[in-house]
Q: What sequence folds into this?
């Protein structure tokens, strides 16, 4: 009497009476067929990612190694790492890298993250009308288009703007903020616009903390700061890491806000990497060089992401 084998969920052949046993090549084909069937539902998403994400990134990587220009040249030529060597030898590029790091640290790592956590913590203790009003105000700034937010903050910081009018009314010294402290002005603008995202993330994380833990800490005499440092922050550590990663990547790519407020000026005092890349690629028509700068910016964002993912990885 013959027996047949069928592949179980773990790929190990199982025998059954009345059917011939499957050979090892047949079992391998069955496993491949099952793998393809499992991958079938996600294949449209994979195809879209390849076409609209991996494809453009690969083409940009190719352009970064050429001398392509928007000047009507007949064809471009391969120049190797010349664009990257030119970038690291350009003082304006190094200045843009420094200003990008300053802008990211001030507006994302410190500003949006800290203010978002503070607002979320305060809203946990506030009454419902206060929570509703505060949330509406903060979220309104977030949903405004970047260009509109830029014009509003330009009107706030300009020489005849709202901030100086308030300072004059209080008999305090005023100044031309867009000229004397442009990188701080655009950093504050980005904090004003993007804090709502951090507030929403931390509000959701704080709501997940069991009340029994915080009540036990209060019974043990833990003060507000000790409870925040030893209980709240460790329990929302993963939310903090996720929020920092998303905020950092978004801040590294901010263009419209700074362009509307300062256009990278005065001089190059607020020219971050996205603005420097735009200037080289579209104002000076050096597409190859500008794309090389874009790849370097992508590399910076990837390094930040790897650091955050490393911090988020839990021990087994």
A:
């Amino acid at each position: 009497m013959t027996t047949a084998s069928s592949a179980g969920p773990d790929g190990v052949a199982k025998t059954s009476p009345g059917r011939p046993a499957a050979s090892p090549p047949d079992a391998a084909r069955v496993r491949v067929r099952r793998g393809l069937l499992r991958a079938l539902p996600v294949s449209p998403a994979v195809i879209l990612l390849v076409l609209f994400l991996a494809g453009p990134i690969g083409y940009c990587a190719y352009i970064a190694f050429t001398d392509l220009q928007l000047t009507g040249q007949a064809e471009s030529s391969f120049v190797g790492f010349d664009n990257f060597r030119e970038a690291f030898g350009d003082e304006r590029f190094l200045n843009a890298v420094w200003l990008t790091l300053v802008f990211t640290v001030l507006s994302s790592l410190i500003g949006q993250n800290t203010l978002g956590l503070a607002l979320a913590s305060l809203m946990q203790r506030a009454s419902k009308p206060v929570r509703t009003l505060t949330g509406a105000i903060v979220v309104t700034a977030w949903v405004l288009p970047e260009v509109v937010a830029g014009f509003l903050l330009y009107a706030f910081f300009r020489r005849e703007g709202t901030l100086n009018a308030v300072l004059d009314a209080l008999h305090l010294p005023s100044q031309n903020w867009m000229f004397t402290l442009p990188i701080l002005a655009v950093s504050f603008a980005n904090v004003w616009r993007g804090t709502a995202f951090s507030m929403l993330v931390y509000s959701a994380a704080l709501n997940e903390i069991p009340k029994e833990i915080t009540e036990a800490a209060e019974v043990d005499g833990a003060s507000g700061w000790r409870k925040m440092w030893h209980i709240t922050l460790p329990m929302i550590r993963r939310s903090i890491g996720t929020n920092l990663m998303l905020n950092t990547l978004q801040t590294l790519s901010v263009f419209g806000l700074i362009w509307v407020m300062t256009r990278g000026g005065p001089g190059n005092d607020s020219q971050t990497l996205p603005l420097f890349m735009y200037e080289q690629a579209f104002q000076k028509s050096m597409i190859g060089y500008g794309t090389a700068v874009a790849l370097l910016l992508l590399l910076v964002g990837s390094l930040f992401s790897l650091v955050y993912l490393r911090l988020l990885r839990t021990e087994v």
About this structure: DSSP finds 15 helices and two strands in the chain. The longest strand covers residues 3-7. Strands lie at 3-7, 13-17. The mean pLDDT is 84.
